Amino acid sequence: MMHNYPVGRLPRQLVRHLITVRPGHTLAALLFGLGTATTPTLAQGTFAAPAYYNSSGVSPIGITAGDLNGDGRADIVLNNFNSSTAGVGVLLNAVAPAAAGTFPASATTYNSGGSNSAGSAIGDVNGDGRPDIVAGNINDNTVGVLLNPGNGTFPSAAITYSTGGAGPVNVSLGDVNGDGRLDIVAAHQNGGTVGVLLNSATTPGTFGAAVQYTAGNQVYGVRLGDVNGDGRLDIVTSNFQSANVSVLLNSATTPGTFGAATSYLSGGSGPLGMVLGDVNGDGRLDIVVNHQASSLFGVLLNSATTPGTFGAVTTYNNGGFGEGVAVGDVSGDGRLDIVVSRNSTGTAGVFVNSGTGTFPTQTNYATGGGLNARVVLVDVNNDGLLDIAVSDFTNARIAVLRNTSTIAAPALSSINPTNGPVGTSVTLTGTNLLNASAVNFTGAAATNFTVVNATTITALVPAGATTGNVTVTTPGGTSNGVAFAVNPTVVISSTAGASGSTTGTSPIPFTITFSQSVTGFVAGAVSVTNGAVTSGSFSGSGTTYSFTVTPTTPGTPTTVSVPANVAITAAGTSNVASAAPYSIQYNAPVTATTWTGAVSSNWYANGNWTNSMPGRRIDARIPAGVPNFPVVPNGTAYAKNLTLASGATLTQSGGTLELRGDFDNSGTFVATGGTVSLRDSLNRQLIGGTSRTTLWNLTVGASGASLNGELEIQRVLTLNGDLSTASLGLTLLSNAGGTAMVVNSGGAIGGPATVQRYIDPSLNAGLGYRH
């Protein structure tokens, strides 16, 4: 199950899953672990003593996290401020699941493309599905891009781009112009601007010239998020010298360009670290900012009436001068808590959200001394708990404090409704339901469910579910079960055709399939219009039943439906009604068609017949008085019985006229070519009528034929079966054009026949016998 949301515009139940990173990092890179368990229900966030990992450089400041090598575990990226050739350090998470959450003793370092690298952002800038690293280089006024080859290793040197300003201390990644590619925004600590570098539309992973926007005095932190709810990423900065934060709204008409900055007091001196998050649960991003020159951090709530504007700051004593700040749900109540790093005491402070966006409770954890620069919250060991990682500027290392909180087990108190078919939406109520990884019905797991809050989950009853208990699984365990009765559904089908179609089959076959085994379903429970269940045709048991329906009136739809509560499962649940009546129209087969000649003399034109062109099972009648009489010039024309009425004419100049029945000729049959073929494989056929019938060629099938009138053959009589002439007369014609002959192929003539022999008058001028 997956839901997609614009970056920086997440519903409350998802905001708590953010991996929180240092100021200047884009929200796009914070979305590590969404869709997997990351935030259980806790009594209180508690953390173990730190584990240390060497930065392999000097003076690490920046720290962020992301899965760089695609193994499903969060890796750590840091910035070594005073290392000109090792500006970026990478600590890959342990490969073995048992060791998850541990890292190599020392980071692998990469050249950031400049010196004094203080911050990085992680994101797929070239669209290859692998997270890349973008680092700011303060002394060089550049950002360095390290493209990920896929295994978490990086090129020896970064590709650099000018940020257009002085001292890019922090960077953020986000799609600011809505083209689907991550762009770069850099904060300039030695000036008052942010630089925006748009990703290339033609060569993703390369960037255009930076565009500068004024933000404040000594811009330090930079974040991207949709603060006004218009679906576009805005820029928020912390401004060290001017002691404020600034908001630059993305243009509504030209996305990727930004309006003038609006500034708000940050509540202290020297604001550095800054993050965005919905701390009061109203669906709008708020601002949290930490201060280096005062022991305060400030919270600015987004306006409930004018999103994108902020009220007066509320400050909290953070217990020492600080730089880093992160937000994440470490207490498991579904609300974002605040974690600060202190560079004066070597500790990290955890401030638990009260539920209203205030932070009255503080717990401090030792990080091992030294000047703590930045902090990130990330689940390093995939246990569903957010851990703390801080960069130790003084001791050239990072400290990782694992969350050791006890996870409370989920408990269910009710489900509503208590019964329904597959696909029913149900609401589960209970406690400790946050971070549910599964909702299990008896027989099947729900593939579509939503954790609304700590006490509510909505789910759709999955295919395969049967009556029984429903449970919820979280990192705290599996809940008790609440009873849900699954009503069987009904599917109607027919081999005669899809619902809404027509058929020539009668009685019409139907199959009823229940989603669960049922009893009590009988023929009388089936609802039928324009027909009735055929006596003796009903059979079946369990999930499948079959029967036929005899239609009452051909040409009118026959419908079949199954009402609710006519079958019952072993658990005592009754079926729901079929979704809609199954409708098939029985059309009696066409047995005869009459020539109209309305269109032309073409035998093969459907418009010349009353019921379309005749076929092997369809009789053809040709009446007198039509505007055009038929002609068979080529191809094969079919009919069962062919009747040529008095005054009517049928012409055959070629092709084959194949008859599966009798040929009754009371009109005129004009044959100048072609063959009449008698092809009934079971019965003798009659040929003739009140008019003399003259054919060009005649083929008699194996079943034989009998004359029913005078017959003349002009060229070839082929006998695959006997031809009985009785006393009606068969004449084999002879003229100047040719003489008829008989081909015996298993048949013979039975009865009298006249054989003509033409005598050329020019050679035999006198009187004499000519026939």
UniProtKB/TrEMBL annotation:
<protein>
    <recommendedName>
        <fullName>Bacterial Ig-like domain-containing protein</fullName>
    </recommendedName>
</protein>
<dbReference type="InterPro" id="IPR014756">
    <property type="entry name" value="Ig_E-set"/>
</dbReference>
<dbReference type="InterPro" id="IPR013783">
    <property type="entry name" value="Ig-like_fold"/>
</dbReference>
<dbReference type="InterPro" id="IPR028994">
    <property type="entry name" value="Integrin_alpha_N"/>
</dbReference>
<dbReference type="Pfam" id="PF19078">
    <property type="entry name" value="Big_12"/>
</dbReference>
<dbReference type="InterPro" id="IPR044048">
    <property type="entry name" value="Big_12"/>
</dbReference>
<feature type="domain" description="Bacterial Ig-like">
    <location>
        <begin position="486"/>
        <end position="580"/>
    </location>
</feature>
<dbReference type="Pfam" id="PF13517">
    <property type="entry name" value="FG-GAP_3"/>
</dbReference>
<dbReference type="InterPro" id="IPR013517">
    <property type="entry name" value="FG-GAP"/>
</dbReference>
<keyword id="KW-0732">Signal</keyword>
